Amino acid sequence: MNKPARALALSILLLLGAVPEYTAIRDPGEYLKKNVVTRKLPNGITVILLNRGYAPVLALEISFRVGSVDESYRTIGAAHLLEHMLFKGTDKIGTRDYRKERPIIGRLEALGETVDRLKLTDPENVRLPELEAEMKKLLSEQSRYIEGSPYDKIYTENGGVGFNASTSKDMTGYYIELPASKLEIWARVESERIMSPVLREYYLERNNVLEERLMRYDSIGTGLLFEKFIATAFIAHPYRHPIIGWRSNIPYLSVADVRKFYHDYYIPSRMTITIVGMQDTERSFEMVSRYFGRIEPRPDPEPIAIKEPRQTGERRFTLAFESQPYLVIGWHKPAFPSRDDYTCEVIAEILAGGKSSRLYRSLVMEKKIASSVSAWNGGPGSRYDNLFLIFATPSPPHTAQELEQAIYAEMDGFFDTASDREIAKMVNTIESGMVFGLETNKGIAGLLNEYQTLFGDWRHAVDYVSVIKRTSVRDIKGMRDKYFTENNRTVGILTNNRGNEGRR
Hints:
- Among the domains are: about 95-145; about 315-504, Cytochrome Bc1 Complex, Chain A, domain 1, CATH 3.30.830.10.
- By secondary structure, it is an alpha+beta fold.
- A six-stranded mixed sheet has the order 1-2-6-3-5-4, sandwiched between helices. Strands 7-11-8-10-9 form a five-stranded mixed sheet, sandwiched between helices.
- Helices cover about 45% and strands about 15% of the residues.
- The protein has helices at about 5-20, 30-35, 80-85, 100-120, 130-145, 150-155, 185-195, 200-220, 220-235, 255-265, 280-290, 340-350, 360-365, 400-415, 420-430, 440-455, 460-470, 475-480, 500-504; strands at about 35-40, 45-50, 55-65, 160-165, 170-180, 270-275, 315-320, 325-335, 370-380, 385-395, 490-495.
């Protein structure tokens, strides 16, 4: 499981016992188990419904169990690009005249595939300027038929807020909050969006993604560091793929490959619909069934067969960049539902779960050799075996190398002296210090949707606290030689190439 999902799980359990509507509920987990309605459409779509609250507002989420981990080297970046493309509309939405637009799209795609192939195999080909000029002319012609931001307009007119989407290593999700009276509009629009998307303006959007990459990764030292870190820690498993794609492959991501990726992975058996808010759940299910039941089922794609080989020696690299120094350390470990995953979550909280944690107190407050330190158990994804990660920023004049050694010393001390009292304090802190802003339909919908999509059953969320409470000192100490070894470690250091550290 990833850290945000865990935080949500604990938050929701607390808020259900805290808000007036649920003051009589002694066991929030049991409340959810009794009141959440879970059904499956004949085509394979899982539907989760929860009636709650006093305001007639619904949080609606659609997610697919597909992310960058499902990509091949040929399709790296496809999941993220598809997220962008699904905002472009259908043959009825986002176009003024699809009958006239459709042949233009066909010609653009044929030209685009030709241009991409020539750029890869014969970049000096004299025909390239002519073909690119023709593409530019066709794009201008197509623009006459395009209505920009079609879904934003529909939802804004109907009182929608928070319309958005996201892609991770493991899943892709689409979100909106709407008045309950607009449920049918949402069901009709979203089902058509999934059944008949038009990949219009594909080449323009592909360029936009490349610009996004340049802005969010290539120009930010920590972004490049983490991307290189994951590609170093994972040498075989597709978790090594950056969600946005590599700078070198985005300009050649084939529209035919992206369309096939959509056909293979945006399928009912990998789809979860979650609706939380004031509603008649029977009526909501009937509405969902009426519209989303029209989506044709398709076979599941082949499972990911490749596994990350056991690491047998430390992997280490340094990245020089015009940036403040930074440090990332990671160790391979199993993912949920392994019992060790829960134990590593406890370790992460004790070591770096806030200002009272061991690493923060020692390295930031007392020794002042770090300005920040944090931990993430479960990066970069949750569906497959993952990493326990520590991130830290050295405080000048201390170096990242100095900070790294200090972290190891603190961790050794932790494994030697961890106590039941410390574990109990950590659990109490989590239970009493949750984010109160998550007492919303959207927060609960996100929790249920994510657990169902990633792990096949949202009920894992309500069992989380009880499992965490069973963690013992013996469990923690057993992790040191099992996972937290030098041979199982990857280290990435970001150095400032304008400073003394970068010149060493």
